[in-house]
Design goal:
Helix content: 40-55%
CATH topology of one domain: Rossmann fold
Largest sheet: 7 strands, mixed
Strand order of the largest sheet: 3-2-1-4-5-7-6
Strand content: 15-25%
Order of helices and strands: HHEHEHEEHEHHHEE
Structural class: alpha/beta
Number of strands: 7
CATH class of one domain: Alpha Beta
Distance between the termini: 55 Å
CATH architecture of one domain: 3-Layer(aba) Sandwich
Length: about 250
């Protein structure tokens, strides 16, 4: 039987597109998403391993682990290898096509732990409760700036004392001259991963109004204002950064 969830090569922007529409996580993207992120995100598999290690150290018995913007379930699959198997995972995404792909992947690998997949608008009132770990892996950048503080506050409120948020984001450099360099280095990486100039250009245009990155200092300020007591960078590659933010433990 053919593996229906096996990743296909990303060719979404391989042909000339006139008046490219804003990027959407629909069926066409869901089908090739695993190949897309592996070729588009630096050290993607290493980031997933790091997220899983951190999650394993902070997941508390009797709580849930949330993955907001879970896409095709890669982060949950990585975390499954390290997190206590009795802890339930909750995957939330605003793309039904991504959730369908996620559910298929989890079933195909015989995902044994309890889990729940939820279709919800991440710009709206996403429910997080009794969580010891919440993951936003390359997700906050797609949430409208107007709603970012609100979702971070809801996450912090939904964490148990001492719970953590693991945030991975594409960012802007603090200085514009370095920002230009970092973007150049990033596109060089995409060329090494066999994306053409047309693909790079057309995807950049499609993402322009959809993916809105912040500076690292702005993300840290958002986390503090949402109620997180301590924030630390655990990953940095040019214009990509990973943060761990902890809710203040009970005294």
């Amino acid at each position: 039987m053919e593996n229906e969830s096996a990743p296909l090569q990303d060719k979404v922007f391989a042909e000339d597109i006139v008046n490219a529409a804003d990027f959407k996580f629909g069926k066409k993207v869901a089908t090739v998403f695993d190949d897309m992120v592996n070729r588009s995100v630096p050290f993607y598999q290493e980031i997933q391993r790091m997220v899983s290690e951190i999650a394993a150290d902070h997941a508390q018995p009797g709580t849930d682990v949330y993955d907001l913007g879970c896409s095709t379930g890669t982060t949950m699959i990585y975390m499954d290898q390290m997190v206590d198997p009795a802890i339930r995972f909750v995957g939330v995404d605003d793309s039904k096509e991504m959730l369908d792909k996620c559910d298929l992947k989890l079933k195909e690998i015989g995902f044994a732990r309890p889990y729940h997949l939820e279709h919800a608008d991440l710009n709206g009132d996403v429910n997080v409760s009794n969580a010891s770990v919440t993951v936003l892996c390359l997700t906050l950048q797609f949430i409208r700036p107007l709603y970012r503080e609100r979702i971070l506050k809801r996450i912090c409120d939904g964490l148990v004392p001492g719970g953590i948020l693991i945030l991975v984001e594409k960012i802007l450099a603090e200085e514009s001259r370095y920002n230009r360099d970092f973007i150049k280095y990033y596109y060089n990486m995409k060329r090494r991963h066999h994306y053409s100039e047309m693909e790079i250009s057309q995807k950049r245009e499609a993402l322009e109004n959809v993916l809105i990155p912040y500076k690292s200092s702005e993300n840290m300020l958002l986390l503090k204002e949402a109620g997180f007591g301590h924030c630390e960078v655990f990953f940095k590659w040019y214009n990509f950064t990973g943060y761990i933010a902890q809710k203040t433990p009970s005294k």
